[in-house]
Amino acid sequence: MAFKVDFKLKREKLSEPTENNEAIVVLELFTSQGCSSCPPADALLQQIKEDYQSSVYALSYHVDYWNYIGWQDPFSKSEYADKQRKYNIKFKNRSNYTPQVVVNGKTHFVGSSSAKMNAAIAKYGAIEAVNKIELGKVRVKKESVYFNYKLQGVAANKSLRAILVLDERTTKVKRGENRNRILKNSNIVVAEKRIAIEDLEGEAFINIPNAVEKDEKLNLIILMETQGYDITAATKTELLR
Question: pTM for the full model?
Answer without folding.
Answer: 0.90
